[in-house]
Specification:
Elements (H helix, E strand, L loop, with lengths): L1 E3 L21 E2 L3 E6 L6 E4 L5 E4 L6 E5 L5 E3 L8 E4 L7 E7 L5 E8 L22 E3 L25 E6 L5 E5 L5 E4 L5 E5 L27 E6 L5 E6 L15 E8 L5 E7 L6 E7 L4 E7 L13 E7 L11 H6 L3 E4 L3 E4 L2 E2 H7 L7 H9 L6 E7 H5 L6 E8 L2 E6 L5 E3 L5 E3 L11 E5 L7
Parallel strand pairs: 8-11
Antiparallel strand pairs: 1-3, 2-31, 3-4, 5-6, 6-9, 7-8, 9-10, 12-13, 13-14, 14-15, 16-17, 17-18, 18-19, 20-21, 21-22, 22-26, 23-24, 24-25, 27-28, 28-31, 29-30
Helix pairs in contact: 2-3
Amino acid sequence: MLVMGLGLVACGGSDDDFHYPGAAGASLPYELIGKVSNSQGTEVRNGSYGSSLAPHPTRPGYFYGLSDRGPNAATEAGRTPSGIIFLAPSYTPRIGLFRLTSEGKAELAETILLKDPKGRAITGLPNKNFGGTGETPYHLDGSVVALDPDGDGVAGFDESGLDSEGLVALKDGTFWISDEYGPHIVHFDATGKEIGRINPFAADPRNKAGRVLPAELSKRWPNRGMEGLTITPDGKTLVGILQSNLYNPTKAVGSINLTRIVTVNIDTGATAQYLYRQDAAGLANSEIVALSATSFLVIERDTKFFGIDTGTVRKNVYKVDLSRATNVDQSNAALRSSQSALTVSPANGLLVNGKTLEEVVKDAGNANNFAAGWEQLAALGIQPAAKTLAYDGIATQKYPHDKMEGLWVIDANRLGIINDADFMIAPDGAGGVKQKLLYDGKVENNMLYVVKPNAPLF
């Protein structure tokens, strides 16, 4: 049982002098949502704005943080049907506007709740028709969520619900947000009301004509959708990155080290796709930020805690170049004409001798981390994005959080990084939750760090 408390309240502030925090970081404010009636008295804290990070486009010293679908946790292994525990099913995903003070602290200046096209505050409950992957929503007591927030008669689901993960803030005051359900890319006005949408479902009437993501992107893992989103400096092209490989064509693909970057021209709807080769299978790409039309920063990480988990711990930022990467979108007819082995499936995208790109990498075996599969793709002229290490959070600062998720390019020599604190809770493995703690025993919180990359970013 969760005993509910108060939500966040915006604070005041002015555009005074400000300072960036250093590598020691600045904590983001929070308020208590409530406490779980377990032996620990686990606190659930509102203020988990670490899913993405974006600078305010016109106000120096201000930045936006993004929440995800609300306080949630994975069910215990073996629960049938499997799903997600929602501690506050009516929680509305939101954007927080923060200001930095002259002491380098972060204060909440405004909260923007996300709303559907009719102005209804959405929830973080999963979609049923356009992007559902069988994620049954549960209460903490094990009962299935019966809330019907969109009033369509389908209990436990919200067709406008978002597990929001990527954020773009534009000078006109609007926002683009990507999510892990569809995946969907949704355009919101300055008040948080939906004004447009792009997703992989051609039948969804909410999509603007001619604006549809590649259909194969709908084959994302549960909870592994479009984790990062950015826009090119000219403001014309949205660029998203999937957290993990697709289950393409099915989940039998399992976990491999191939994920995808997708670009969408906002004016024309033209799409392109590029492959990203992770350092190891099972890692996550949790943010992408544009430096130019073809150069980006990408977070590549695991879910381990420094000082707690054993083995290699990865919290890396890579500089990624698409200029020589191969566009593997099915719209690239020139690529297919160059190789007879390449064909297209409307549902699964580019195929190699009838296999999806994910199957090619998977079926070649995992010796040397699927190197043989990548070699097969290279022999067909398919090259992934080039990448070079820009920042190693473990080697440089012993980054203490499990989820490095947001990036802010302040200038060529300063990079802002924020973590997702998951409302300061974690699954306990038995169908409940526990407090999310760091290696020093402290409760995790959202932290903004400003660090120096290995070399100037541009």
